Amino acid sequence: MRPIVKITANLKRIRSSNLHRRLSINTAKTDEIDMLSLTINQMLEHLEQSFDSQKSFVANASHELRTPITSILGEAEITLMKERDPETYKSALKEIVSSVERLNLIINSLMELMQTNLDNRDFQNVKVDELMWEIADELAGKSNGDQVRMGYHLPEDITKSVISGNRRLLFIAISNILKNAVKFSEGKTVDCEVRYIDKGIQITIRDQGIGIAKDDLIKIFQPFFRASNAMNFQGYGIGLSLTDNIVKLHNGTISINSVLEQGTTIVVFFPTA
Ligand SMILES: Nc1ncnc2c1ncn2[C@@H]1O[C@H](COP(=O)(O)OP(=O)(O)OP(=O)(O)O)[C@@H](O)[C@H]1O
Ligand SMILES: [Mg+2]
């Protein structure tokens, strides 16, 4: 069979149900056709990975949504089984309200996550130092104001501290990191630094909190993942997956360094125009 016809025939057999299939490659003498097959195989690899992560996302999301729904149903059904006194009705309703609040939070975060998956690029010029200042300010209002220490190392040329982006999404991305730093370090100072480095802005957020175990580091960007040492803290494991999506949407990078019981440093880099 002619090589291109063979590739086409093989590709037609690949469906979402058998995405693990790959085109065969002659490794003995790699020619242009093999290079093409190799590229297609790499694309299939990406597709398979993204299918897998979608599947686990749906499974995790369903589980997270089902938990509060089950408790709402249970509470209501048990209360309705017989006549109760007003106090019992009141406490049942309170339970229900708190589960609905939880549901509401999860749904809102999921909606935000969906938005970051859409590629709707209504980008504008965002001054990073201003943005950081606003985020820290908002956070100070909610927690102990002294906890976040900001530092700026910006160039004279202010055009260099501007990135092209979606302000609201950037706000969410950075504030998730900062909120984690504050939350997981229980009152210890969080250092936040904005620095202009070659062709971009680097934001470093350093805390002295509980830290993240080495094996968990690669998982923390997965939706709903929470490390075992985080279970005593409020949260759903959605924040960082949102942040990761948003940073990617802005062609940025995010790196993380952490030592258990000592602290975590997250560095985000955004290229400037
Ligand atoms: N600064 C940090 N220090 C220690 N652990 C962290 C830190 N930031 C993130 N983590 C770990 O990564 C996990 C995922 O973070 P993420 O922000 O996605 O979830 P969350 O903060 O637990 O919940 P949510 O953001 O939905 O309120 C956390 O549960 C925690 O285990
Ligand atoms: Mg969080």
From TrEMBL:
Residues 1-52 form the HAMP domain. Keywords: ATP-binding, Kinase, Nucleotide-binding, Phosphoprotein, Transferase, Two-component regulatory system. It comes from the Bacteria. Its main location: membrane. InterPro entries: BphY/WalK/GraS-like (IPR050351), HAMP_dom (IPR003660), HATPase_C_sf (IPR036890), HATPase_dom (IPR003594), His_kinase_dom (IPR005467), HisK_dim/P_dom (IPR003661), HisK_dim/P_sf (IPR036097), Sig_transdc_His_kin-like_C (IPR004358). One of its GO terms (molecular function) is phosphorelay response regulator activity. This is histidine kinase. It comes from Pedobacter antarcticus 4BY.
